[in-house]
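re: ur question from earlier - yeah i can do the single chain one, its not a big deal. heres the input i used so u can compare w yours
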Amino acid sequence: MTTEAPQPVLEILGRTSLRGEVQISGAKNSALVLMAGSILCADKCTLRNVPNLVDIKRMGQILTSLGVMLKQTDDVLEIDAKNINPTEAPYDVVSQLRASFFVIGPLLTRLGTARVPLPGGCAIGARPVDLHVRGLQAMGANVSIEDGIVHANLVGNKGRLQGTNIYLDYPSVGATETILMAATLAEGETKIENAAQEPEIVDLANFCNAMGANVSGAGTNTITIQGVSELHSVDYHVIPDRIEAGTFLVAGAITHSEITLTSVIPEHLAPVIAKLNEIGCQVIAESDDGKIFGGNVKSQRLRIVPGELYGTDIETLPYPGFPTDMQAQFTALLSISKGNSVISETVFENRLRHVAELQRMGTNIRVKGNHAIVQGVPIISGAPVMATDLRASAALVLAGLAAEGKTTVHGLHHLDRGYENLEAKLSNLGARLKRIIPSGS
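and the output i got, formated as tokens:
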């Protein structure tokens, strides 16, 4: 009988003011798809501002299994996909990372064949790949699913996928990215209508264009891709992580602390900033050293000046609406804000599971369907809590910062998927927290 190794927990002593500056890391959700997109190019690609995260390591394992050569130095990742082969990506890694499915579009359009297991990731609701599959089929691919493996091949004597018009029933980020990448090397023009508009889509389009692709309209609901025969090497800076930035803004608000974020693109945070202003905080954009990211976008600093917190209503929506990835963090914030709030989760049906853990800390939240009805309380108390997904883990850390006494957060493997050095960054701001292996576990 084997005994599982004890898992670390995060102990947080709350009610401490924060102050200082925190630098925001590169965007996880952008870096992952750019890593997959590097398969499109037979030359070496360099990605900069790549965060050091478990999910990034998993995507690296998937690329390596396909014959891609990787070399990482700090936040710089060199990728050489010259000798790529269409062997099946390893299921044990794919099952833990939904973004692993992104390799199907680049593999298919460059090699004419792809075999990718159905993906995994956080258990936050149904995220079917049917939109990806239908898009590739519309471009002339033969796609089938057998024993949990998606097989895709070019049909007939056509050497390339064929450009076409594709309408997405839902503005899926993943499907938009898959089709966009596949279309870069397709023959003719591909138009994606009802496309996702997230900043990570724009970053992918800028990355592909920097390699010689011809993509226009990214950031709107119609993206047009003129296929080219090949792409060339690129040296590219990943945009900052808007969700990490939003999480630190909430950290300032929930602890009534003035803190400054550097390396931020404020436009990516418009709905988050608007809600923080509504709740009673001021978020002020200031110039910084002006780092240049893909698409010649300059970074700025964001300073949050907290005020008295008041409830508000939030509904998650595809970008440019309020991001589902910030819903859990705002649930924690609104739980200690005066008055009542209603949070409606419209993107993922299982994304209110953190409420049960927040209730253990003395919050007054009821769940009715996809709505969380929050009545603000003046004080919450530390408790042992369990993270249920990536953003829920961040919400519990934020609640711990605001709570009276000690909070112990379990399930840190979720946190490590998406936040680079979160404890160190919070400690540098003055938070009292430490990661430990509990005795007797």
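Confidence is low (pLDDT under 50) at residues 121-127. not sure if urs matches, ping me
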